[in-house]
Design brief:
By secondary structure, the protein is of the alpha/beta class. The protein folds into four domains: about 55 residues, N-terminal domain of TfIIb (Single Sheet), CATH 2.20.25.90; about 240 residues, 3-Layer(aba) Sandwich (Rossmann fold), CATH 3.40.50; about 190 residues, Dimethylsulfoxide Reductase, domain 2 (3-Layer(aba) Sandwich); about 110 residues, Barwin-like endoglucanases, CATH 2.40.40. It is about 30% helix and about 20% strand. A hairpin with a 2-residue loop joins strand 24 and strand 25. It is globular. The chain starts with a strand and ends in a 6-residue tail after the last strand. The structure holds ligand MGD (2 copies), iron/sulfur cluster and molybdenum atom. Molybdenum atom binds next to loops.
Amino acid sequence: MTAGAETHCPYCALQCAMTLLPKVPGAPADDPRLTVEGRAFPTNRGGLCKKGWTSSTLLDSADRVVQPLVRNADGELQPATWDDALDLIAETLRSVRAQHGADANGVFGGGGLTNEKAYQLGKFARIALGTSRIDYNGRFCMSSAAAASNRAFGADRGLPFPLTDLDAAHTVLLLGSNVAETMPPFLSHIEGARAAGGLIVVDPRRSSTARLTDDDQGIHLAPAPGTDLQLLLGLIHIVIAERLHDDGYVRDRTVGFAELRRSVAGWWPERVQQVTGVPVVLLRQVARRLGSGRPTYILSGRGVEQHVNGTDTATAAINLALILGLPGKPDSGYGTLTGQGNGQGGREHGQKSDQLPGYRKITDPDARAHVAAVWGVHPDDLPGPGLPAVQLLASIGEPGGIRTLLVHGSNLSVSAPNAGGVRERLHSLDLLVVCDFFLSETAQLADVVLPVTQWAEEEGTMTSLEGRVIRRRKAIDPPAGARSELWIMAELARRLEAPGRFDLDPADVFDELARASAGGIADYSGLSHALLDEGMPAYWPYPAGSDGTPRPFEHRFAHADGLARIVAVSVARPAEPAATGDELTLITGRLLEHYQSGAQTRRVPELMDARPRLEATLHPATAADRGLADGDDIELSNDRGVVRARVTTTTGIRPDTVFLPFHYPDDHSANLLTSDATDPISSMPEFKTAVVRIRAMSGAAP
Ligand SMILES: Nc1nc2c(c(=O)[nH]1)N[C@H]1C(S)=C(S)[C@@H](COP(=O)(O)OP(=O)(O)OC[C@H]3O[C@@H](n4cnc5c(=O)[nH]c(N)nc54)[C@H](O)[C@@H]3O)O[C@H]1N2
Ligand SMILES: Nc1nc2c(c(=O)[nH]1)N[C@H]1C(S)=C(S)[C@@H](COP(=O)(O)OP(=O)(O)OC[C@H]3O[C@@H](n4cnc5c(=O)[nH]c(N)nc54)[C@H](O)[C@@H]3O)O[C@H]1N2
Ligand code: SF4
Ligand SMILES: [Mo]
């Protein structure tokens, strides 16, 4: 055991710094009992949330999968040797390719994988399997914000400034983000804005974060779910009408203002109030606060992004920021709060269906030539763009669709939209392989489960929500039966007689990633594990010979002419007609205690005890109308599925709305109700709103 491994939390993109220490001093290297200490770091300042504090309990969890499992003729998962499991996988991948073509094999990655694993997975798919069919769960997470940032700024670095810049803010507008539960240590950075009365939270619920605006510390706007675009168009309208915009900045640093002005002309405040339910007086108050000229940040979260118009809504948020002259100013800006631990790095190195390492486009001939040279293959041998996540999963069972799927770091049978359909389709695959350390709900459906190392058992790098590359460090040896995913990919590549190298040491893989990224948007070529170990902050782009780029938009944006694009957007049709009559609008999101599909946190007793079951949050009037009270069991349903939950009431939700977290399995998965309609630009599904009916379950109130 390394005494005190300095590493970062296994969960979200804040990547709080922590030190892992042996519970029993002097314990051997394979003793999994560790304690967690918060570590001083600019982002978390020594703080951790409940999930971070309890993260080490998963290392010696009794639920841990510690040997490969293969489904036998009776349909049961049985222990197998690594050789047998890998031989079976390689044989099936090979025969499916021979019979149905390379694109019949699919890969699904995750934003929790280290940069090294994410990079290697993209390479493995393209050159070992020769398939274009790779995408990942970041499609469900950051794709709308990423698409909007790429369109506006020419690059997608979630926060194009260090988080500590927020400390001096006078105003922070949080759009559809509940940081009080999703990133608690983040709150220290908005204390200044709160003290100045300038925290503005946009959320249909009175979320934990919205409650931070109480006592004159800010403003809570509660628009009708899915009307954020109209709200933002309305704010832009007021800013322009009241001449609160920054003419000089608009002239010198942007293009497209005239079209924007025309496009918002019809969004006068009274009309916006009618659509969103947000009073005109609040709209004006917020617009004036944002336009005060004091240090101001606009930050977006999944609440506004996970919609079929998510890209346009994020674009409207950027437009608002641009006309106020915020992006690239030393004390102001726009950013999106990346979600998963390596959500940022995970979207840079080739897990995306349309992308090669360094945030390069797979359709760009120069990018293909550069990456092919690093990989030691001919550019023509690289496949073209594949299918984004929802379409990839929908292709199962369709002509030309995928027949096998290798899953690395996602519990998609719980977290994908319209999950009932996904569960059915997974059953019809010729081969489902899940790499995980637990028998997640998706692993339970697999033909082969491969046990992998957990965060404290491996070396690597993560790129946090700041675009800062940090080191994940090994504290203990993995259980005897678990293997690293780099090893799994190398073993499969060997069995498939793949070209190229598949290194085992994460430091070597990182060096290759650095070369592959050189000259790309997300350039890591000046970085190495050794350099990161020196502890200097490393913000990308970090080309060889540079010191990195904490604030990439300070002087110019990443488009060739250095200017930001103001892209006028308009309101299109929603995913489905609005709720009428007895129907309610379902909104979904997160709880402090659980992480994502809950595959990890449902196995931490302390977290599970606090949040043991799915609760549906309703307004008391809505509950009363239906003869329901707190603690009653209900069914929520629509054409896609039925979900069972327990009622909890609060006046902090609109009476036309019901809230469900998506952390629970089986018939407690919110995603049985969500639609797999997607945004035309980002392919983000409509996670945040759906139309549902609710009714008491037998035995509950009438
Ligand atoms: N505890 C915890 N923390 C996490 C995670 C977790 O699972 N659990 N996951 C991590 C990941 S991957 C991510 S992406 C981030 C997500 O972090 P957030 O974006 O903060 O998370 P959500 O709870 O999904 O959504 C935020 C808010 O959006 C609101 N919302 C729903 N519909 C709408 C709408 O139409 N408009 C608006 N304006 N708001 C709406 C919800 O009420 C919710 O309060 O959290 C990260 N941190
Ligand atoms: N309704 C609704 N649905 C949503 C959302 C929402 O707000 N509402 N949010 C969406 C968002 S933002 C996200 S990010 C997704 C996330 O949803 P998922 O993709 O399901 O993410 P996790 O639950 O974190 O699943 C990660 C799985 O990989 C395992 N794992 C962790 N680390 C590793 C690793 O290094 N290697 C391997 N092989 N396995 C690992 C974990 O044990 C777990 O089983 O959910 C999306 N789904
Ligand atoms: S806020 Fe995120 S990174 Fe920090 S301890 Fe909690 S889950 Fe871990
Ligand atoms: Mo996410």
